[in-house]
Specification:
- With 349 residues, the protein is of the alpha/beta class.
- The chain has 2 domains: 186 residues, Rossmann fold (3-Layer(aba) Sandwich); 95 residues, Rossmann fold, CATH 3.40.50.1100.
- Strands 4-5-13-10-11-12 form a 6-stranded mixed beta sheet, with helices on both faces. A 4-stranded parallel beta sheet has the order 8-7-6-9, sandwiched between helices.
- Helix 2 runs parallel beside helix 3.
- The chain is globular and about 45 Å long.
- The N and C termini lie far apart (52 Å).
- The model has no long low-confidence stretch (mean pLDDT 96).
Length: 349
């Protein structure tokens, strides 16, 4: 059942937001039962709890969890398109394909656009992707390689979103920020971590925050496991924003700062659709940490010297570790450096 997070109205699932303007999410999920998992080595082993059936997939997920330098690193940059966004794309596109939707529009700073373009190609769905003009060339090349049409938009990430919404008057808006099935795919991070910890959880999970769908999805996944009696606590969920764009931190601390340019381009989301829900999850189960541009660069260099070739957006969590020094923590690395080799090369000069 799809309902509005704000007013609670039940939706038929065909729109991208509620009539009241609120975001949609799936509720009424069956209790999680370990013995009922599908016997496949992919995120689709949790199919019963995702609200849709596997149809558009590359058998993605169940990414490695490796212990390095005192922390566990979840290597979500090892997905088919090089980013964690494939978790949401496989769930969303499977549902859209089931409904017979054959033309979509998406807006993205790069990673989500590439992911949606790849899964659209897999499903035989035509895709248009609106991107900000500053998006990495590597990501744009990837989107185009999958056969999607790119529409470049001058201005901010928010300007890009507005243009895509205008286009959605004629084409289905397959937004990774708004679609409830994309959010369902994000829950699988929590399921995988718990299973990789032998159905226990770490004390902390650190992850980058842009639109916050990942943060909220991970929270929903752990909360589902808790309510089902599989785990006995939700880890502290530490989201990391760049100082250049920090809407969730701002909301928590009663301030308002404009978004500025950042090397962590994937986090430049000025108005997260699920802001209220994320803030509530942070208040009860986590924290938001800010990192500077200099700290992001330092974090990126550290990751590279560890053999972890991640993109600058993903490196914000490495920067945050230097401030927190947690124990028994999982660090989520979300995007491959292969998407931004030119930019990384310039940063290291």
């Amino acid at each position: 059942m799809i309902t509005c997070s704000r007013c609670g109205k039940v939706s038929d699932g065909t729109g991208w937001q509620c009539e009241c303007g609120g975001p949609l999410e799936r509720g009424d999920v069956a209790p999680f039962r370990k013995e009922e998992l599908t016997p496949v080595h992919s995120l689709w082993r949790y199919q019963k709890y995702l609200g849709t059936e596997k149809s558009v997939s590359f058998n993605e997920g169940f990414t490695p969890l490796v212990f390095l330098g005192g922390y566990y690193y979840k290597l979500d940059f090892l997905f088919p398109t090089g980013s964690f966004k494939d978790r949401g794309a496989t769930a969303m596109m499977s549902e859209l394909a089931k409904r017979g939707i054959n033309y979509i529009v998406e807006d993205s700073s790069g990673n989500a656009g590439a992911s949606v373009a790849a899964y659209a190609a897999r499903a035989g769905i035509t895709a248009e992707v609106y991107v900000p003009s500053y998006a990495s060339k590597g990501k744009l090349s990837q989107i185009e390689a999958y056969g999607a049409s790119i529409c470049r938009v001058e201005g901010t990430r928010e300007d890009t979103r507005r243009e895509a919404v205008k286009r959605s008057e004629k084409v289905f808006y397959a937004s990774h920020q708004w679609n409830p099935y994309f959010l369902e795919g994000m829950k699988t991070v929590a399921y995988e971590i718990a299973e990789q910890f032998c159905w226990d959880v770490p004390d902390m999970v650190a992850l980058p925050v842009g639109s916050g769908s990942l943060y909220y999805g991970v929270y929903k996944g752990f909360n589902h496991l808790l309510e089902s009696g599989v785990i006995d606590k939700i880890p502290q969920l530490v989201g990391v924003e760049a100082e250049s764009c920090s809407p969730i931190y701002d909301e928590l601390h009663g301030r308002r700062t404009p978004c500025r340019k950042s090397v962590a381009e994937g986090l430049l989301v000025e108005n997260p659709p699920r802001l209220k829900e994320i803030v509530q999850a942070v208040k009860t189960h986590g924290d938001i940490v800010l990192v500077s541009e200099e700290e992001i660069l330092t974090g990126l260099k550290k990751a590279l010297r560890m053999g972890l070739f991640i993109e600058p957006t993903s490196a914000v969590v490495m920067a945050a570790l230097q401030k927190m020094h947690p124990s028994n923590a999982v660090v989520l690395l979300t995007g491959s450096g292969l998407k931004a080799t030119g930019e990384i090369g310039e940063m290291l000069l």
